[in-house]
Amino acid sequence: MSKITAAITAVGAYVPEYVLTNEILETMVETNDEWITTRTGIKERRILKDPDKGTSYLGIKAAEDLINKSGVDPSEIDMVIMATATPDLLVASTASYVATKIGATNAFSYDLQAACSSFLYGMSTASAYIASGKYKKVLLIGADKMSSIIDYTDRATCIIFGDGGGAALFEPNEEGLGLQDEYLRSDGVGRDFLRIEGGGSLMPPTAETVANKKHFVYQDGKTVFKFAVSNMADVSERIMQRNNLSHDDVSWLVAHQANKRIIDATARRMQLDDSKVLMNIQRYGNTTSATLPLLLNDFEKRFKKGDNLIFAAFGGGFTWGSIYLKWAYNA
Ligand SMILES: CC(C)(COP(=O)(O)OP(=O)(O)OC[C@H]1O[C@@H](n2cnc3c(N)ncnc32)[C@H](O)[C@@H]1OP(=O)(O)O)[C@@H](O)C(=O)NCCC(=O)NCCS
Protein backbone atom coordinates (compact mmCIF):
# COMPACT_ATOMS: atom_id res chain seq x y z
CA MET A 1 0.00 0.00 0.00
CA SER A 2 1.29 3.47 -0.83
CA LYS A 3 2.03 5.91 1.96
CA ILE A 4 -0.86 8.18 3.02
CA THR A 5 -0.09 11.88 2.76
CA ALA A 6 -2.40 14.68 3.91
CA ALA A 7 -3.61 16.94 1.13
CA ILE A 8 -5.58 20.16 1.27
CA THR A 9 -8.72 19.45 -0.76
CA ALA A 10 -10.78 22.62 -0.14
CA VAL A 11 -10.41 26.11 1.31
CA GLY A 12 -12.73 28.89 2.46
CA ALA A 13 -12.49 32.28 4.15
CA TYR A 14 -14.34 35.19 5.67
CA VAL A 15 -13.46 38.79 6.52
CA PRO A 16 -15.82 41.26 8.19
CA GLU A 17 -17.27 44.11 6.14
CA TYR A 18 -15.92 47.10 8.04
CA VAL A 19 -12.70 48.47 6.48
CA LEU A 20 -10.29 50.31 8.77
CA THR A 21 -8.07 52.30 6.41
CA ASN A 22 -4.79 54.06 7.13
CA GLU A 23 -6.66 57.33 6.59
CA ILE A 24 -9.10 56.49 9.38
CA LEU A 25 -6.19 55.51 11.65
CA GLU A 26 -4.68 58.95 10.99
CA THR A 27 -7.70 60.39 12.82
CA MET A 28 -7.27 58.02 15.78
CA VAL A 29 -3.51 58.09 16.55
CA GLU A 30 -0.44 60.11 15.55
CA THR A 31 0.44 58.28 12.34
CA ASN A 32 0.19 58.61 8.58
CA ASP A 33 -0.46 56.50 5.52
CA GLU A 34 3.08 56.95 4.19
CA TRP A 35 4.69 55.68 7.44
CA ILE A 36 2.39 52.66 7.69
CA THR A 37 2.74 51.75 4.01
CA THR A 38 6.52 51.98 3.85
CA ARG A 39 7.14 50.26 7.21
CA THR A 40 4.55 47.47 6.91
CA GLY A 41 2.93 47.33 3.46
CA ILE A 42 -0.53 47.61 5.06
CA LYS A 43 -3.23 49.87 3.56
CA GLU A 44 -6.35 48.60 5.33
CA ARG A 45 -7.69 45.90 7.63
CA ARG A 46 -11.11 44.40 8.38
CA ILE A 47 -12.71 44.79 11.80
CA LEU A 48 -15.57 42.79 13.31
CA LYS A 49 -17.59 45.63 14.79
CA ASP A 50 -20.49 43.68 16.31
CA PRO A 51 -19.72 43.49 20.07
CA ASP A 52 -21.84 40.33 20.40
CA LYS A 53 -19.68 38.36 17.97
CA GLY A 54 -16.37 36.72 18.81
CA THR A 55 -13.74 34.73 16.94
CA SER A 56 -16.14 31.78 16.56
CA TYR A 57 -18.23 33.92 14.18
CA LEU A 58 -15.22 34.38 11.87
CA GLY A 59 -14.42 30.66 12.06
CA ILE A 60 -18.00 29.58 11.39
CA LYS A 61 -18.32 31.88 8.37
CA ALA A 62 -14.99 30.66 6.94
CA ALA A 63 -15.94 27.01 7.46
CA GLU A 64 -19.37 27.59 5.90
CA ASP A 65 -17.68 29.16 2.87
CA LEU A 66 -15.53 26.03 2.51
CA ILE A 67 -18.55 23.74 2.94
CA ASN A 68 -20.61 25.66 0.35
CA LYS A 69 -17.78 25.72 -2.19
CA SER A 70 -16.71 22.10 -1.80
CA GLY A 71 -20.02 20.42 -1.07
CA VAL A 72 -18.45 18.42 1.77
CA ASP A 73 -21.03 16.96 4.16
CA PRO A 74 -20.18 18.45 7.58
CA SER A 75 -21.42 15.34 9.38
CA GLU A 76 -18.54 13.44 7.71
CA ILE A 77 -15.87 15.68 9.25
CA ASP A 78 -13.90 13.67 11.84
CA MET A 79 -12.12 16.51 13.56
CA VAL A 80 -12.13 20.32 13.83
CA ILE A 81 -8.99 22.15 14.90
CA MET A 82 -9.42 25.83 15.71
CA ALA A 83 -6.13 27.70 15.44
CA THR A 84 -6.60 30.94 17.36
CA ALA A 85 -4.98 33.32 19.80
CA THR A 86 -8.31 34.96 20.63
CA PRO A 87 -10.75 32.23 21.74
CA ASP A 88 -14.33 33.33 22.46
CA LEU A 89 -13.98 32.30 26.09
CA LEU A 90 -11.32 30.94 28.39
CA VAL A 91 -11.65 27.25 29.27
CA ALA A 92 -14.64 26.50 26.97
CA SER A 93 -13.21 25.34 23.63
CA THR A 94 -14.08 27.63 20.71
CA ALA A 95 -13.53 24.71 18.33
CA SER A 96 -16.33 22.70 19.95
CA TYR A 97 -18.78 25.55 19.53
CA VAL A 98 -17.76 26.10 15.90
CA ALA A 99 -17.97 22.37 15.10
CA THR A 100 -21.50 22.15 16.47
CA LYS A 101 -22.64 25.32 14.68
CA ILE A 102 -21.40 24.13 11.27
CA GLY A 103 -23.03 20.73 11.68
CA ALA A 104 -19.81 18.76 12.26
CA THR A 105 -21.77 16.73 14.78
CA ASN A 106 -19.57 13.62 14.54
CA ALA A 107 -16.29 15.46 15.00
CA PHE A 108 -14.09 15.92 18.04
CA SER A 109 -12.49 19.31 18.30
CA TYR A 110 -10.03 21.47 20.14
CA ASP A 111 -8.23 24.82 20.03
CA LEU A 112 -4.57 25.16 19.12
CA GLN A 113 -2.67 28.27 20.24
CA ALA A 114 0.77 29.19 18.96
CA ALA A 115 0.21 32.91 18.29
CA CYS A 116 0.90 33.80 14.65
CA SER A 117 2.20 30.27 13.99
CA SER A 118 -1.08 28.64 15.08
CA PHE A 119 -2.27 27.76 11.57
CA LEU A 120 1.16 26.49 10.48
CA TYR A 121 1.41 24.24 13.55
CA GLY A 122 -2.21 23.23 12.92
CA MET A 123 -1.25 22.06 9.43
CA SER A 124 1.28 19.75 11.01
CA THR A 125 -1.30 18.45 13.51
CA ALA A 126 -4.02 17.97 10.90
CA SER A 127 -1.59 16.14 8.61
CA ALA A 128 -0.39 13.83 11.36
CA TYR A 129 -3.96 12.75 12.16
CA ILE A 130 -4.62 12.05 8.47
CA ALA A 131 -1.31 10.25 7.93
CA SER A 132 -2.08 8.01 10.94
CA GLY A 133 -4.87 6.52 8.85
CA LYS A 134 -7.38 6.95 11.67
CA TYR A 135 -9.19 10.02 10.31
CA LYS A 136 -10.35 10.92 6.81
CA LYS A 137 -11.51 14.52 7.06
CA VAL A 138 -9.83 17.08 9.31
CA LEU A 139 -11.01 20.69 9.15
CA LEU A 140 -8.40 23.22 10.19
CA ILE A 141 -9.72 26.72 10.85
CA GLY A 142 -7.53 29.77 11.55
CA ALA A 143 -9.40 32.78 12.91
CA ASP A 144 -8.70 35.75 15.12
CA LYS A 145 -10.64 38.76 16.31
CA MET A 146 -7.48 40.75 16.94
CA SER A 147 -9.50 43.93 17.46
CA SER A 148 -10.64 42.44 20.80
CA ILE A 149 -7.08 42.61 22.19
CA ILE A 150 -5.72 45.75 20.53
CA ASP A 151 -5.40 49.16 22.18
CA TYR A 152 -6.57 51.65 19.55
CA THR A 153 -4.61 54.43 21.26
CA ASP A 154 -1.30 52.55 20.80
CA ARG A 155 0.07 53.42 17.35
CA ALA A 156 2.77 50.75 17.59
CA THR A 157 0.20 47.92 17.44
CA CYS A 158 -3.15 49.26 16.22
CA ILE A 159 -1.87 49.86 12.68
CA ILE A 160 -0.77 46.25 12.27
CA PHE A 161 -3.59 43.89 13.15
CA GLY A 162 -6.95 43.00 11.61
CA ASP A 163 -9.75 40.42 11.98
CA GLY A 164 -10.45 37.45 9.72
CA GLY A 165 -10.85 33.72 9.35
CA GLY A 166 -9.91 30.97 6.93
CA ALA A 167 -10.32 27.21 6.68
CA ALA A 168 -8.69 24.25 4.96
CA LEU A 169 -9.88 20.65 4.68
CA PHE A 170 -7.25 17.90 4.93
CA GLU A 171 -7.89 14.47 3.40
CA PRO A 172 -5.76 11.41 2.63
CA ASN A 173 -3.93 11.32 -0.69
CA GLU A 174 -2.26 8.33 -2.29
CA GLU A 175 -0.67 10.16 -5.25
CA GLY A 176 2.06 11.64 -3.08
CA LEU A 177 0.47 15.10 -2.99
CA GLY A 178 -0.10 17.16 0.17
CA LEU A 179 2.29 17.76 3.06
CA GLN A 180 5.83 16.67 2.21
CA ASP A 181 8.01 18.04 5.01
CA GLU A 182 7.92 20.38 7.98
CA TYR A 183 10.47 22.16 10.13
CA LEU A 184 8.83 23.69 13.22
CA ARG A 185 10.69 25.61 15.93
CA SER A 186 10.04 27.52 19.17
CA ASP A 187 12.06 29.45 21.73
CA GLY A 188 10.69 30.78 25.02
CA VAL A 189 13.25 33.57 24.97
CA GLY A 190 10.62 35.49 23.00
CA ARG A 191 7.88 35.63 25.58
CA ASP A 192 8.63 39.13 26.85
CA PHE A 193 8.70 40.76 23.42
CA LEU A 194 5.20 39.94 22.17
CA ARG A 195 2.47 39.15 24.68
CA ILE A 196 -0.60 40.10 26.67
CA GLU A 197 0.54 40.40 30.25
CA GLY A 198 -2.79 40.30 32.07
CA GLY A 199 -5.66 37.83 32.20
CA GLY A 200 -3.63 34.62 32.37
CA SER A 201 -2.63 32.59 35.43
CA LEU A 202 0.45 34.74 36.04
CA MET A 203 -1.54 37.95 36.29
CA PRO A 204 -5.25 37.28 36.75
CA PRO A 205 -7.57 40.16 35.89
CA THR A 206 -8.16 42.86 38.48
CA ALA A 207 -9.46 46.42 38.32
CA GLU A 208 -5.82 47.48 38.33
CA THR A 209 -4.81 45.30 35.35
CA VAL A 210 -7.68 46.78 33.37
CA ALA A 211 -6.78 50.35 34.37
CA ASN A 212 -3.16 49.71 33.40
CA LYS A 213 -4.11 48.29 29.98
CA LYS A 214 -2.57 44.90 30.71
CA HIS A 215 -5.13 43.07 28.59
CA PHE A 216 -3.92 44.44 25.27
CA VAL A 217 -1.16 43.17 22.99
CA TYR A 218 2.26 44.57 23.81
CA GLN A 219 5.00 44.28 21.20
CA ASP A 220 8.64 45.30 21.09
CA GLY A 221 8.42 45.72 17.33
CA LYS A 222 12.12 46.11 16.62
CA THR A 223 13.11 42.92 18.46
CA VAL A 224 10.25 40.90 16.99
CA PHE A 225 11.16 42.18 13.53
CA LYS A 226 14.78 41.09 13.94
CA PHE A 227 13.91 37.57 15.09
CA ALA A 228 11.15 37.21 12.47
CA VAL A 229 13.37 38.20 9.55
CA SER A 230 16.21 35.85 10.36
CA ASN A 231 14.17 32.89 11.58
CA MET A 232 11.55 32.82 8.83
CA ALA A 233 14.25 33.06 6.19
CA ASP A 234 16.37 30.36 7.89
CA VAL A 235 13.62 27.74 8.08
CA SER A 236 12.39 28.41 4.55
CA GLU A 237 15.88 28.07 3.14
CA ARG A 238 16.45 24.91 5.18
CA ILE A 239 13.25 23.22 4.02
CA MET A 240 14.22 23.95 0.41
CA GLN A 241 17.71 22.55 0.92
CA ARG A 242 16.66 19.33 2.59
CA ASN A 243 14.08 18.65 -0.12
CA ASN A 244 16.51 19.54 -2.92
CA LEU A 245 14.27 22.37 -4.13
CA SER A 246 15.81 25.17 -6.14
CA HIS A 247 14.04 28.52 -6.50
CA ASP A 248 12.76 27.28 -9.86
CA ASP A 249 11.09 24.32 -8.18
CA VAL A 250 9.15 26.48 -5.73
CA SER A 251 5.80 27.56 -7.20
CA TRP A 252 4.57 29.81 -4.36
CA LEU A 253 5.70 31.25 -1.05
CA VAL A 254 2.76 31.31 1.39
CA ALA A 255 4.17 33.41 4.22
CA HIS A 256 2.55 34.80 7.36
CA GLN A 257 1.47 38.37 6.63
CA ALA A 258 2.97 40.38 9.50
CA ASN A 259 5.09 42.88 7.62
CA LYS A 260 5.86 43.13 3.90
CA ARG A 261 9.54 43.71 4.67
CA ILE A 262 9.76 40.39 6.57
CA ILE A 263 8.12 38.53 3.68
CA ASP A 264 10.42 40.22 1.13
CA ALA A 265 13.49 39.26 3.17
CA THR A 266 12.38 35.62 3.27
CA ALA A 267 11.71 35.62 -0.48
CA ARG A 268 15.13 37.15 -1.16
CA ARG A 269 16.88 34.42 0.85
CA MET A 270 14.95 31.82 -1.17
CA GLN A 271 15.94 33.69 -4.37
CA LEU A 272 12.29 33.78 -5.40
CA ASP A 273 10.85 36.01 -8.05
CA ASP A 274 8.24 38.46 -6.70
CA SER A 275 5.58 36.83 -8.87
CA LYS A 276 5.77 33.71 -6.67
CA VAL A 277 5.35 35.56 -3.39
CA LEU A 278 1.71 35.63 -2.26
CA MET A 279 0.74 38.91 -0.65
CA ASN A 280 -2.55 40.28 0.69
CA ILE A 281 -1.23 42.14 3.74
CA GLN A 282 -2.18 45.44 2.08
CA ARG A 283 -5.88 44.52 2.41
CA TYR A 284 -6.08 42.66 5.74
CA GLY A 285 -3.02 43.54 7.86
CA ASN A 286 -1.87 40.84 10.27
CA THR A 287 -4.83 38.57 11.05
CA THR A 288 -2.63 36.23 13.16
CA SER A 289 -4.03 32.68 12.71
CA ALA A 290 -5.95 33.62 9.55
CA THR A 291 -3.15 34.93 7.32
CA LEU A 292 -2.18 31.60 5.71
CA PRO A 293 -5.72 30.33 4.92
CA LEU A 294 -6.72 33.80 3.68
CA LEU A 295 -3.84 33.58 1.21
CA LEU A 296 -4.88 30.08 0.14
CA ASN A 297 -8.42 31.26 -0.44
CA ASP A 298 -7.47 34.46 -2.28
CA PHE A 299 -4.98 32.73 -4.59
CA GLU A 300 -6.65 29.29 -4.90
CA LYS A 301 -7.51 29.79 -8.58
CA ARG A 302 -3.85 30.31 -9.48
CA PHE A 303 -2.66 27.04 -7.92
CA LYS A 304 -2.22 23.98 -10.14
CA LYS A 305 -2.19 20.36 -9.05
CA GLY A 306 1.40 19.42 -8.20
CA ASP A 307 2.54 23.00 -7.45
CA ASN A 308 5.18 23.22 -4.71
CA LEU A 309 4.05 25.55 -1.92
CA ILE A 310 6.41 26.67 0.83
CA PHE A 311 4.62 27.94 3.94
CA ALA A 312 6.42 30.05 6.55
CA ALA A 313 5.31 31.74 9.76
CA PHE A 314 6.68 33.48 12.82
CA GLY A 315 4.86 34.49 15.99
CA GLY A 316 4.74 35.14 19.71
CA GLY A 317 6.43 32.71 22.04
CA PHE A 318 8.53 32.72 19.89
CA THR A 319 7.11 30.13 17.51
CA TRP A 320 8.03 29.68 13.86
CA GLY A 321 8.56 27.20 11.08
CA SER A 322 8.17 26.19 7.48
CA ILE A 323 6.13 23.54 5.68
CA TYR A 324 6.53 22.12 2.17
CA LEU A 325 3.23 21.03 0.60
CA LYS A 326 2.31 19.83 -2.88
CA TRP A 327 -1.01 21.33 -4.00
CA ALA A 328 -3.58 18.63 -4.81
CA TYR A 329 -6.21 20.10 -7.13
CA ASN A 330 -7.06 22.60 -9.86
CA ALA A 331 -9.78 24.96 -8.64
C1 LIG B 1 6.05 47.51 14.26
C2 LIG B 1 7.02 47.91 13.18
C3 LIG B 1 6.26 48.11 11.87
C4 LIG B 1 7.69 49.22 13.53
O1 LIG B 1 8.62 49.57 12.54
P1 LIG B 1 10.09 50.05 12.94
O2 LIG B 1 10.74 50.45 11.68
O3 LIG B 1 10.72 48.98 13.74
O4 LIG B 1 9.77 51.32 13.78
P2 LIG B 1 10.22 51.65 15.26
O5 LIG B 1 9.43 50.87 16.23
O6 LIG B 1 11.72 51.56 15.33
O7 LIG B 1 9.83 53.15 15.29
C5 LIG B 1 10.47 54.13 14.50
C6 LIG B 1 9.86 55.47 14.81
O8 LIG B 1 8.52 55.50 14.31
C7 LIG B 1 7.62 55.82 15.35
N1 LIG B 1 6.37 55.11 15.16
C8 LIG B 1 5.98 53.92 15.69
N2 LIG B 1 4.76 53.62 15.26
C9 LIG B 1 4.38 54.60 14.44
C10 LIG B 1 3.21 54.83 13.67
N3 LIG B 1 2.19 53.98 13.66
N4 LIG B 1 3.16 55.94 12.92
C11 LIG B 1 4.17 56.82 12.90
N5 LIG B 1 5.30 56.65 13.60
C12 LIG B 1 5.39 55.55 14.36
C13 LIG B 1 8.31 55.39 16.61
O9 LIG B 1 7.83 56.10 17.75
C14 LIG B 1 9.74 55.73 16.30
O10 LIG B 1 9.96 57.11 16.50
P3 LIG B 1 11.31 57.62 17.15
O11 LIG B 1 12.40 57.17 16.20
O12 LIG B 1 11.11 59.08 17.20
O13 LIG B 1 11.39 56.95 18.48
C15 LIG B 1 8.11 46.85 12.97
O14 LIG B 1 8.97 46.85 14.06
C16 LIG B 1 7.57 45.47 12.80
O15 LIG B 1 6.93 45.19 11.82
N6 LIG B 1 7.88 44.55 13.72
C17 LIG B 1 7.50 43.19 13.64
C18 LIG B 1 6.04 43.07 13.75
C19 LIG B 1 5.58 41.68 13.62
O16 LIG B 1 5.95 41.02 12.70
N7 LIG B 1 4.75 41.29 14.56
C20 LIG B 1 4.01 40.11 14.56
C21 LIG B 1 4.87 38.94 14.58
S1 LIG B 1 3.79 37.67 14.33
TrEMBL record:
<dbReference type="InterPro" id="IPR013751">
    <property type="entry name" value="ACP_syn_III_N"/>
</dbReference>
<dbReference type="GO" id="GO:0033818">
    <property type="term" value="F:beta-ketoacyl-acyl-carrier-protein synthase III activity"/>
</dbReference>
<comment type="pathway">
    <text>Lipid metabolism; fatty acid biosynthesis.</text>
</comment>
<dbReference type="GO" id="GO:0004315">
    <property type="term" value="F:3-oxoacyl-[acyl-carrier-protein] synthase activity"/>
</dbReference>
<dbReference type="InterPro" id="IPR016039">
    <property type="entry name" value="Thiolase-like"/>
</dbReference>
<dbReference type="InterPro" id="IPR013747">
    <property type="entry name" value="ACP_syn_III_C"/>
</dbReference>
<keyword id="KW-0444">Lipid biosynthesis</keyword>
<keyword id="KW-0275">Fatty acid biosynthesis</keyword>
<feature type="active site">
    <location>
        <position position="286"/>
    </location>
</feature>
<comment type="function">
    <text>Catalyzes the condensation reaction of fatty acid synthesis by the addition to an acyl acceptor of two carbons from malonyl-ACP. Catalyzes the first condensation reaction which initiates fatty acid synthesis and may therefore play a role in governing the total rate of fatty acid production. Possesses both acetoacetyl-ACP synthase and acetyl transacylase activities. Its substrate specificity determines the biosynthesis of branched-chain and/or straight-chain of fatty acids.</text>
</comment>
<keyword id="KW-0808">Transferase</keyword>
<dbReference type="Pfam" id="PF08545">
    <property type="entry name" value="ACP_syn_III"/>
</dbReference>
<keyword id="KW-0963">Cytoplasm</keyword>
<feature type="domain" description="Beta-ketoacyl-[acyl-carrier-protein] synthase III N-terminal">
    <location>
        <begin position="110"/>
        <end position="188"/>
    </location>
</feature>
<feature type="domain" description="Beta-ketoacyl-[acyl-carrier-protein] synthase III C-terminal">
    <location>
        <begin position="240"/>
        <end position="327"/>
    </location>
</feature>
<keyword id="KW-0276">Fatty acid metabolism</keyword>
<protein>
    <recommendedName>
        <fullName>Beta-ketoacyl-[acyl-carrier-protein] synthase III</fullName>
        <ecNumber>2.3.1.180</ecNumber>
    </recommendedName>
</protein>
<comment type="subunit">
    <text>Homodimer.</text>
</comment>
<feature type="active site">
    <location>
        <position position="256"/>
    </location>
</feature>
<feature type="region of interest" description="ACP-binding">
    <location>
        <begin position="257"/>
        <end position="261"/>
    </location>
</feature>
<dbReference type="GO" id="GO:0006633">
    <property type="term" value="P:fatty acid biosynthetic process"/>
</dbReference>
<comment type="similarity">
    <text>Belongs to the thiolase-like superfamily. FabH family.</text>
</comment>
<keyword id="KW-0511">Multifunctional enzyme</keyword>
<dbReference type="GO" id="GO:0005737">
    <property type="term" value="C:cytoplasm"/>
</dbReference>
<keyword id="KW-0012">Acyltransferase</keyword>
<dbReference type="InterPro" id="IPR004655">
    <property type="entry name" value="FabH"/>
</dbReference>
<feature type="active site">
    <location>
        <position position="116"/>
    </location>
</feature>
<dbReference type="GO" id="GO:0044550">
    <property type="term" value="P:secondary metabolite biosynthetic process"/>
</dbReference>
<dbReference type="Pfam" id="PF08541">
    <property type="entry name" value="ACP_syn_III_C"/>
</dbReference>
<keyword id="KW-0443">Lipid metabolism</keyword>
